[in-house]
Structures are given as structure tokens and as C-alpha cells.
Design brief:
Chain lengths: ~150, ~170
């Protein structure tokens, strides 16, 4: 990020997409590992990379995880595992397509029953303050499963 | 469960949502999974595609050098702009030599928390001759209009398109 006059409450994200031939390109973010996007025909058939739609749904899902983890740290609670399965629906709206809804099913495993309420609260707050979902037009529906195990 | 701005048609029971249904031709589904690994790290898992390590950015207490959701949000729009441009280049029937799009997203603190308030896509396309230049400019305009990912975002998207003959 370039040093400029951004306030403390503003952050910039700089990403580059470079076409690599046919229908594929590379997503470059600083020196982070490259994400390939699109598809590329090769000797063994066609290799599928992350589509823009995958990246869209993934960005909301990862943001939800980050947001949940941040709340568990604020609340000083631990969990054993977390995973979220997300489904995004792309639909024709008027003359073009839009992602019209997302559904996230999160499963969290905790050590003991007494953590359940607080973990459920962290999941709710994680969803409410998820920057990325809040930047999208579509509604996100959450189903949270908390298991003692 | 939290329900936000749910339209009326969004009435399925959550558990029914993952049941494979006959989707219409005009509907597509995208399914991804994120597994927490440790600390603030996770792994993005999409069937049949390379796994991606993910984390929050350093400004939100994450490590450096790992893909963040903010990066992926901007990347989704930039990559979608590229694929939409390619589709239009085929429809309009012209070839281009190179395409590169730099996306800059601005995340800003609003009353309700952070949101992306602006996205700027700076695109450079190289073509072989002057007569293709106009076609490429038109394809870039159409791609901006029909980019389904930007159309799914709340923030305005600005385009700075440059077509160079080389």
C-alpha cells in the first residue's frame, strides 16, 4: 500500500490481474502466492482455476471466519475447529447476472457446553460485522452449528 | 441464525439450501469451504481447484504475505472484468495482445462498521492495430457494464481504460 493521506479508518487494497492467455489470468497481490483464475486447456484436458464467482463467495466466507476469530479473541474464548460451507447463487437479474444470495453454514467444535452461548454470540457478531458481506448487495443467511466434542 | 435484508423469495429452510435442486438455466451455484487451521489462519477449499491459504490483513491483526478476504473481494471484481472483456472480445471478433487490470478497493469505517466504499479498476489493453483500438474500447465499456461481480457489490466502480497500439 502506498503511503498517502488515508485516515486510520480507511484502508486500500491493491490487486492486479494479468491475462495469461485464452480465458485465464493471474491474480497478483504484492508478493503473496499467485491465484490463477479462469480456465486453461492443457494436455490432460482443461484445468479449472478459481473463477471470479468463486473469489467473490470466498472473500465473504474468509471475512466471516476472520471476523469470528477476532470476536473469540476479544471475548477470550477458545474453540477447537471452525469451518464454513458457503453457497452463492448467481441469477439473471434484468439483462445481466448478479449474485443474489449467499448461504453460510458454519460448524464450530468446542471443548465444553458452557462455551456454547458465547461461541454462538461470536458467530452472530462475526456475521454482523463481516466487512465483505456488508459490501455486497445480496443477503447472507447463516446457519451456525456448535458441537461439543 | 442471523437474517439480513432477506427478500421474500429467500424462504427456504437453511438445511434445505444445500440439497441439490434443479436450477434453471439462468441460475448457477458456487460452493466454497473455509477451514480454520490455527491462530488467524485458514484454508480456502474449492473442489478441484488449488487450495489457498488465507488470513486477515496486518491492519486487522493478521500476518503479512497471505491472501486476505479484502484482496479476494477486489480480485473477484478485477478477474470478472477480465473474463467479461474476453467474452466481448470474442463476440466482437478481435484479438488483443495483452490485458492487465489493477484494482484498488477502498475500505472505510462507516457508522455500522467497515465497508468497501469505492473500487477503481485501471485497465491496460494492448492491440495490434489502430482499427482494433475502437473495438477494444467498446469491449472494455461493455465489460464494465456487464461485470456480474461488480454488479453484485454495493460500492461504485470507476474505470480507467487505456488501449495501446503496439
Amino acid at each position: 500500500m502506498l503511503a498517502n493521506s488515508l485516515s486510520e479508518d480507511t484502508h486500500e487494497y491493491d490487486v492486479k490481474v494479468v491475462w495469461t492467455g485464452d480465458k485465464s489470468g493471474d491474480v497478483l497481490v504484492g508478493d503473496k502466492p499467485v491465484i490463477r483464475t479462469g480456465r486453461r486447456p492443457d494436455l490432460s484436458g482443461t484445468t479449472e482455476f478459481h473463477s471470479p464467482e468463486d473469489l467473490f463467495v470466498a472473500s465473504a466466507s474468509v471475512c466471516f471466519m476472520d471476523s469470528f476469530v477476532a470476536f473469540t479473541q476479544k471475548m477470550h474464548i477458545a474453540f477447537k475447529s471452525f469451518e464454513v460451507d458457503t453457497k452463492g447463487i448467481l441469477e439473471k437479474v434484468d439483462r445481466s447476472y448478479e449474485i443474489t444470495r449467499m448461504y453460510m453454514k458454519a460448524t464450530v467444535v468446542i471443548e465444553s457446553e458452557e462455551l456454547r452461548d458465547r461461541i454462538t454470540r461470536a458467530l452472530e457478531l462475526g456475521a454482523k460485522y463481516c466487512y465483505v458481506s456488508n459490501s455486497m448487495k445480496c443477503p447472507t443467511q447463516h446457519e451456525n452449528i456448535v458441537i461439543v466434542g | 441464525m442471523i437474517l439480513r435484508y432477506l427478500p421474500k423469495r429467500f424462504s427456504e429452510r437453511p438445511s434445505d439450501f444445500f440439497v441439490v435442486k434443479a436450477l434453471s438455466q439462468d441460475m448457477h451455484e458456487y460452493q466454497v469451504r473455509v477451514d480454520w487451521t490455527r491462530d488467524r489462519l485458514g484454508e480456502l477449499v474449492i473442489e478441484g481447484k488449488p487450495k489457498v491459504q488465507v488470513a486477515p490483513p496486518p491492519e486487522f491483526d493478521g500476518p503479512t504475505g497471505i491472501m486476505t478476504p479484502e484482496d479476494m473481494f477486489v480480485a473477484a471484481a478485477s478477474a470478472c472484468f477480465m473474463t467479461t472483456f474476453i467474452t466481448f472480445s470474442k463476440k466482437i471478433r478481435f484479438d488483443f495482445k495483452s490485458f492487465s487490470c489493477q484494482g484498488v478497493g477502498t475500505l472505510q469505517k462507516l457508522e455500522k462498521g467497515y465497508e468497501f466504499t469505492k473500487l477503481v479498476l485501471k485497465t491496460k489493453v494492448t492491440v495490434g492495430s489502430e482499427d482494433i483500438k475502437q473495438k477494444a474500447e467498446r469491449a472494455l465499456e461493455l465489460a464494465g457494464k456487464y461485470c456480474l461481480v461488480s454488479n453484485s457489490m454495493k460500492c461504485p466502480v470507476e474505470h480507467e481504460n487505456t488501449v495501446v497500439v503496439k
